[in-house]
Amino acid sequence: METIKTIIEPFRIKVVEPIPFTTRAKRAEMLEESGYNLFQIDAQNVTIDMLTDSGTSALSSRQWSALMLGDESYAGASSFHHFKNTVKNIFGFSQILPVHQGRAAERILFSELVKPGNIVPGNAHFDTTRANIELRGAKAIDLPCKAWVEASDEDFLGNIDLEQLEDLIQTTGADNIPLVIMTITSNTCAGQPVSMHNIAAVSKLLKKYDIPLYIDAARFAENAYFVKNHEHGYKERTILSIAQEMFSYAQGAMMSCKKDGLANIGGFIALNDSDLAERLKVNLIVSEGFPTYGGLTGRDLETIAVGLTEVLEDDYLNYRAASARFLWRGLNRLSVPLIQKPALHAVYVDAALMLPHIDPEQLPGQVLASELFLEGGIRTCEIGTAMFGKTNEKTGKQICAKRELVRLALPRRVYTQSHFEYVIEAFANIQERKDKLSGFSIVHEAPVLRHFTAVFSKVLKTSQSPVML
Ligand code: F0G
Q1: CB 214 within 8 A of CB 251
Q2: Cα 361 to Cα 466: distance, rounded to the nearest angstrom
Q3: CA of 222 to the centre of ligand 1 (A)
Q4: pLDDT in tens, 442-457
Q5: Max alpha carbon distance in the chain (Å)?
Q6: What is the pLDDT of residue 466?
Q7: Following CA atoms 420, 22, 411, 351 in sequence, which dihedral angle do they give, to the nearest 10 degrees?
Q8: Which of 110, 187, 254 to mutate to test the pocket of ligand 1 (most atoms within 8 A of CB)?
Q9: Between 315 and which of 10, 230, 329, 461 could a Cys-Cys bridge form, CB atoms 3.0 to 4.6 Å apart?
Q10: What is the number of other CB atoms lying within 10 angstroms of the CB of residue 25?
Q11: Interacting residues of 241 by C-beta distance below 8 A, sequence separation 6+
């Protein structure tokens, strides 16, 4: 029985990368120059970068040494076999196709499976998944469990709503549904996990209608952590065996290895259907590369193979959860409104509740993200109307998103507790002046994915109409 309860980083630091510090005046200048758009700010001016947990992991010494073993042969490289055998062991599928990142897996898989007019249901599709489905002329439908929409204390808020799924199959017809995708954890549902029970139940339902189930496995180890710690009957199981069980219910998986692959680039498609795999390989060769490297170097394949093994370690996942909890609790103590449950890959702030005086039309999430940069050089990401809303062409008004969130993503093995203390202090300072913050309007926007390049401007709210500052 261990007597020390503190969960510490299960590593010591061998290489350090200096982080930049800037003055408040300089940050104010940069915000104005960038049109209050944090995607337009250079990383060299960001003190704590919480824009994404994707491709931002720190590599371990084991990964750096594996990287030196990278076999860069065009065909049949030993690094491919290392990668393939590791993926096979965890995911249990026989056909493994490497790709350069998750969205390439989506594009290639859907090019074979999805036809115009099809419906692709899921618990909550990630935006590139949705975009790749829509590019095929099909429709992506999210059927998250009711608990997420209504806010709840349940543990598995990423679950798919089974009743809605069956209703949809019956009204659409199973022939029109080429696959169902379960995203674990559900990034679009604030990183909330999916229970084993739900995966098994969806699989059983889909078998009845002969519809294949695919898993978007970007954060599968974090999902397995939740199953182990919150689902009855899994406490004594290893994360590996939980992962193996999760995938045993599916016909295939797609993964962006930039998350739980603990790698900076990479992904794969995994499945058992060898005929389908042969067809996918044709597309893979044309658009990514030969099927034993799929757009990756031998070094990348080695890095992912080691990363996929390290991500399953209890010490790593316990520390990951503890650090997410530390940030979540610190903000909760300040009464910052948060999504009900701490996820592992990010903490989500409800900006509409934090800044209730700013109408969703005036982008409270973008205002908060910009204020965090001003306060501490902290870069986060708005997930609300700036990202998912639209400008009504006739009225010029915003068609708002369902929620106005700000995501504080947690790069893996990168920041320590004192970095999070710094972020918490920045929030404390903003809490004190939050009532004085004014909203934003959109001055310029691109026709698609507007959040990357949009230019925002501060508005001064009057009783009549918004006035530009
Ligand atoms: N699926 C999920 C659940 C994701 O979160 C992402 C990426 C992808 C697929 C696409 O993978 O980036 O390798 O092409 N999410 C990143 C994020 C971009 O910041 O959440 P990719």
Answers
A1: yes
A2: 11
A3: 15
A4: 999 988 889 999 999 9
A5: 69
A6: 45
A7: 70
A8: 187
A9: 10
A10: 8
A11: none
- How far is the C-alpha of 408 from the C-alpha of 403, rounded, in Å? 15
Q: State which ligand 1 atom lies nearest to the alpha carbon of 409.
A: 19
Question: What is the strand order of the sheet 440-444 is part of?
Answer: 440-444, 455-460, 467-468
Q: Is 255 helix (H, G, I), strand (E, B) or coil?
A: strand
Cα-to-centroid distance, 187 and ligand 1 (Å): 8
Query: Among all chains, which residue has been given the structure tokens 């790069």?
Result: 411
Tokens 């973008």 belong to: 366
Tokens of 293: 């490297």
Q: Whole-prediction pTM value?
A: 0.95
How far apart are the C-alpha atoms of 31 and 457, rounded to whole Å? 10
Q: What is the Cα–Cα distance from 201 to 207, expressed in whole angstroms?
A: 10
Q: For ligand 1, is residue 295 a contact (CB within 6 Å)?
A: no
Could you tell which of 259, 288, 412 is best to mutate to test the pocket of ligand 1, judged by most ligand atoms within 8 Å of the CB?
A: 259
pLDDT in tens, 36-79: 999 999 999 999 999 999 999 999 999 999 999 999 999 999 99
Q: Backbone phi, then psi, for 166, in 5-degree steps?
A: -65, -40
Domains delineated in the chain: 24-53+313-468 (3.90.1150.10), 61-310 (3.40.640.10)
CA distance 119 to 133: 9
The fraction of the chain above a pLDDT of 90, given in percent, is 91
